[in-house]
């Protein structure tokens, strides 16, 4: 009958050391066989320290050199010589194997020395003790029921040789600290993968009003007559700021008004002449310019009288030509009657001559008279069309005179309209110019950068006089973004604004949204200045802190804008330099 298997040994604490019995004459795998003393037979040896020493007849204790050789054999992969090897490892297996070998070597080098006097002193003892405790905590954990004898332990990660060597030395008292360090390391690695941090693009900027700072200028310039605001003054929209005297070359509003009134009265007169109606002048201009009204009325009457006189002469000529036509017509009728009678006498005379009752002399005279009357009749009839043509010509001169008068009136009317338009434009300019002599505030705000502080001082055209900072407008951050970050910044992204006037660690910052990203870079005019993209961030509020203790921000404060472009884990932040080094290093020519 087979005997029942022996019960397993009771679990030992992590601090208890179990001696490993090595048969006499059998070396630890991977270590050279120790020289056996003469006459020694089969015996066992105990590896360890403390109260258990080498007994008589026991095998020799493993020396430092033998342990190093065993470690080298273990690091070399172990196995009998000539053993058939498998396929070559992959890249990841090679990396994992290298890390394991490094850790094995480090743990072995940190093992406790054989002699106390060989232990390192001072600061060198701390890392040695720490790694020794880590090794002693980790290696026994591979076997949950405690360390196993050398011949029964087959852990593939470290090999039985390393475990047997580890069991040859007592464990130090740094095991709890090592466990804590390993636990913290594992927790840190997990936390580095899980925890995420914001990626931000940083841009420096300045607090500006939403409507921008208003620059006060003057188009024509002038001489300062009165100053009604100073630096720091709070002004309302339309409040007077400064009064100027215009230069001598400026437009005269009163002169332009009188000139325009004259053109309007002239247009009224010309309209009456053009339509042959009584003249009616506008009441407003007539009240302002009574002298011009009287002058235009006299001109109207004089021109009308001259036209009537010319038309009277021409109409008389028409009547005269009409009388001539009538005279020719009457004369023609008379000659025609005489001709008819003469022709009758000629016929009677012809009959009498044939009868021999009349003389031939009388007959010839009658015949001559008939021919003469025919010539007169033809001449009179030919004069009638000429007289009628002369009459029509006289009538045409009348119409032409009327048309000429109207053409003249129409031409003057067009010129008057053009002059009115030109004068009205100049009058508007003069009105604006006179209005601009009193410079007023365009918005509610605060005066700053007052440049004209002297009564009688000269303000050049287009030069800035002062600036007005808006009061009741939302504040924005006008920031300068590095072109390297442009690809990550888009409108609508959230941003954190840190005001330099308030400590961020104490008072916090402002949240906002990116509302504008310039389509192109801006290159400053200063030398050695770097180009930048203009970015505008609209803040959610205009103060820092809560409602009870809010600290207002104002235009001009400097700010740092952190635009949130995404998130990354802490591990990604840690390995980014390594990845960057891998892609960019060792490539220079």
UniProtKB/TrEMBL annotation:
Domain AprE-like beta-barrel: 475-566
Key word Lipid biosynthesis present: no
Sequence ranges assigned to domain AprE-like long alpha-helical hairpin in this UniProt record: 254-433
Comp. bias regions, Pro residues: 1-12
UniProt biased composition (Low complexity): 60-74
GO biological process: protein secretion
Pfam families assigned to the protein according to its UniProt record, in alphabetical order: Beta-barrel_AprE, HH_AprE
Subcellular location as annotated: Cell inner membrane
InterPro entries the record matches: Beta-barrel_AprE, HH_AprE-like, MFP, Secretion_HlyD_CS, T1SS_HlyD
Keyword Calcium (UniProt): no
Topology with respect to the bilayer: Single-pass membrane protein
Biased composition (Polar residues): 43-55
Main location: membrane
GO cellular component assignments: plasma membrane
Renumbered residue ranges of the record's region Disordered: 1-93
Keywords: Cell inner membrane, Cell membrane, Membrane, Transmembrane, Transmembrane helix, Transport
Family label: Belongs to the membrane fusion protein (MFP) (TC 8.A.1) family.
Protein name: Membrane fusion protein (MFP) family protein
Taxon lineage: Bacteria, Pseudomonadati, Pseudomonadota, Alphaproteobacteria, Rhodospirillales
């Amino acid at each position: 009958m087979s005997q029942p298997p022996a019960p397993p040994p009771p679990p030992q604490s992590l601090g208890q050391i179990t001696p490993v019995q090595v048969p006499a004459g059998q070396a630890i795998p991977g270590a050279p066989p120790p020289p056996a003393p003469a006459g020694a037979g089969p015996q066992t040896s105990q590896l360890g320290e403390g109260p258990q020493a080498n007994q008589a007849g026991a095998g020799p204790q493993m020396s430092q050199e033998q342990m190093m050789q065993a470690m080298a054999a273990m690091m070399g992969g172990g196995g009998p010589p000539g053993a058939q090897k498998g396929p070559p490892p992959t890249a990841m297996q090679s990396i994992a194997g290298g890390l394991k070998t490094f850790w094995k070597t480090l743990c072995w080098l940190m093992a406790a020395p054989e002699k106390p006097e060989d232990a390192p002193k001072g600061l060198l003892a701390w890392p040695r003790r720490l790694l020794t405790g880590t090794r002693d905590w980790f290696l026994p954990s591979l076997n949950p029921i405690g360390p196993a004898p050398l011949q029964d332990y087959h852990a593939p990660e470290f090999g039985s040789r390393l475990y047997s060597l580890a069991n040859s030395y007592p464990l130090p008292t740094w095991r709890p600290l090592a466990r804590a360090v390993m636990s913290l390391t594992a927790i840190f690695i997990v936390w580095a993968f899980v925890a995420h941090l914001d990626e931000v693009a940083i841009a420096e900027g300045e607090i500006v009003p939403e409507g921008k700072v208003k620059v006060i200028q003057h188009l024509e310039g002038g001489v300062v007559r009165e100053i009604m605001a100073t630096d720091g003054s709070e002004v309302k929209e339309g409040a007077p700021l400064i009064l100027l005297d215009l230069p001598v070359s400026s437009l005269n509003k009163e002169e332009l008004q009188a000139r325009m009134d004259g053109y309007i009265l002239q247009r009224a007169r010309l309209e009456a002449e053009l339509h042959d109606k009584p003249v009616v002048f506008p009441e407003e201009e007539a009240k302002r310019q009574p002298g011009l009204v009287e002058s235009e009325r006299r001109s109207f009457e004089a021109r009308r009288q001259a036209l009537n006189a010319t038309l009277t002469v021409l109409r008389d000529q028409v009547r005269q030509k009409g009388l001539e036509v009538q005279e020719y017509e009457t004369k023609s009728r008379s000659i025609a009657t005489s001709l008819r009678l003469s022709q009758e006498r000629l016929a009677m005379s012809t009959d009498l001559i044939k009868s021999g009752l009349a003389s031939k002399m009388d007959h010839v005279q009658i015949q001559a008279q008939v021919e003469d009357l025919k010539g007169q009749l033809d001449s009179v009839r030919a004069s009638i069309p000429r007289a009628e043509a002369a009459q029509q010509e006289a009538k045409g001169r009348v119409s032409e005179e009327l048309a000429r008068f109207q053409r003249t009136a129409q031409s003057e009317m067009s010129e008057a309209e053009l002059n009115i338009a030109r004068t009205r434009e100049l009058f508007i300019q003069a009105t604006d110019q006179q209005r601009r002599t009193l410079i007023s505030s365009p918005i509610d705000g605060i005066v700053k950068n007052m440049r004209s502080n002297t009564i009688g001082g000269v303000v050049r055209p287009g030069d800035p006089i002062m600036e007005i900072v808006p009061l009741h407008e939302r504040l924005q951050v006008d920031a300068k973004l590095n072109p390297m970050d442009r690809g990550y910044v888009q409108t609508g992204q959230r941003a954190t604004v840190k005001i330099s006037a308030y400590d961020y660690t104490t008072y916090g910052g402002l949240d906002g949204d990116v509302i504008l990203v310039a389509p192109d870079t801006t290159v400053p005019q200063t030398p050695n200045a770097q180009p930048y993209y203009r970015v505008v961030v609209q803040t959610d509020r205009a103060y820092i802190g809560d409602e009870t203790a809010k600290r207002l921000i104002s235009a001009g404060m400097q700010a740092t804008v952190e635009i949130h472009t995404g998130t990354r884990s802490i591990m990604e932040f840690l390995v980014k330099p390594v990845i960057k080094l891998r892609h960019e290093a060792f490539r220079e020519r």
